[in-house]
Specification:
Number of strands: 9
Largest sheet: 9 strands, antiparallel
Helix content: under 10%
Number of helices: 1
Shape: elongated
Order of helices and strands: EEEEEEEEEH
Distance between the termini: 177 Å
Length: 353
């Protein structure tokens, strides 16, 4: 003989507040199709319900192989409950041979309530045991523990107000969550300096400046640094002077070549007033109109080429640096020759006798 076998699947879902939905399915397993064999009946049900503390109502909707579709109801009021799985019987006309109803009363079993004076869900027994351990550990026989102070299970009923997993008794900042290394005090910016010692609570910094930042690492804190992202010098409020000429880079026209402040930090080796980077002759003084180079005297006649009418031929200043000519070649210069185009002796002023 095959015994009846049924597979049951059920689930209960919390929809919203006190509203729930239950679903159940009974699958009857029939191993052999034999009318003489015993087997159960398959059935499926969905039951929405409203479940309050002292009252409730449910409306089961079911379908069975024999019963077909049914809609019922169930009511709960205090310890009493009653209902039916088929409301249609209440509305049928004529003779009714049977009625499916149930009625029940819920009665609780008395039990000893666990003592919990402070109402923290940790029994007084556990808290007293912990108090005893504390007294033994600290040597303080007056240690009261936390029997009358609401706490958490993690610390056997002792409080952890800020929920940082450090009991209030060991927490230097019991109302602000913080790490264990700071005895429960916070470090908001996580710079290794706890907030109560940190002058810049929300910005990571260094201990040298009480938790305030020095981004460029020049030992001048950012709030007093005119160039916070570039390392510099105290005399320039943290701004750099790359060529170390005493002129900060932002005011230095030649930041990589040292020069005096009167030259805006640019060098002038020949001291001609023209900065080296504009001077074509940086080691020889010269005027600006000649790009810092000295004027030459090519023919060496004492007149600079710029003032010399004949820069390649020496001549006297009174002739603009050009040599005097002797047109007739008689040895008497034209300026002293009374007969420029006719040769003559010098004693006759260059004229023929």
């Amino acid at each position: 003989m095959n015994l009846p076998t049924t597979i049951r699947i059920s689930g209960d879902y919390h929809i919203w507040h006190d509203l729930y939905l239950n679903a159940e399915a009974f699958f009857a397993v029939q191993f052999k199709k034999d009318a003489n064999k015993i087997h159960n009946i398959s059935k499926y049900a969905i039951t929405p319900r409203y479940d309050y503390k002292w009252a409730g109502i449910a409306v089961p909707v079911s379908y069975g192989q024999l019963s077909g579709m049914r809609v019922g109801t169930g009511l709960r009021a205090g310890p009493f409950m009653f209902g039916t799985s088929d409301l249609s019987l209440l509305f049928k006309k004529g003779k009714i041979n049977g009625l499916d109803m149930y009625l029940g009363v819920h009665a609780g079993v008395p039990f000893n309530k666990i003592k919990d004076r402070d109402g923290d869900k940790v029994s007084d027994k556990v808290e007293k045991k912990y108090r005893k351990a504390l007294r033994k550990e600290t040597g303080n026989k007056k240690e009261e523990g936390c029997v009358d102070v609401p706490g958490v299970w993690e610390f056997k009923g002792c409080p952890d107000t800020d929920n940082d997993h450090i009991p209030d008794s060991e927490d230097d900042c019991p109302f602000e969550a913080g790490p264990e290394k700071f005895n429960g005090c916070p470090d908001t910016d996580e710079d290794g300096i706890m907030d109560k010692l940190d002058s810049c609570v929300t910005v990571p910094g260094i201990e040298e400046f009480s938790g305030c930042p020095d981004t460029d690492g020049d030992h001048i804190k950012d709030s007093e640094d005119d160039c916070p992202e570039t390392a510099g010098l105290p005399e320039f409020n943290g701004c750099p002077d790359r060529d170390k000429d005493g002129v900060k880079d932002s005011d230095d026209a030649c930041p990589d070549n040292p020069g005096p402040i009167e030259n805006m930090g640019c060098p002038d080796r020949d001291k001609d007033g023209i900065f080296d980077y504009l001077d074509e002759c940086p080691d020889k003084a010269g005027p600006e109109e000649n790009h810092g180079c000295p004027w030459p005297d090519t023919d060496g006649d004492g007149l600079l080429d710029k003032d010399d009418g004949c820069p390649n031929n020496p001549g006297p200043k009174e002739n603009n640096g050009c040599p005097y000519t002797d047109t007739d070649g008689d040895g008497v210069l034209d300026k002293d020759d009374e007969c420029v185009n006719t040769p003559g002796p010098i004693e006759n002023n260059g004229c023929p006798v």
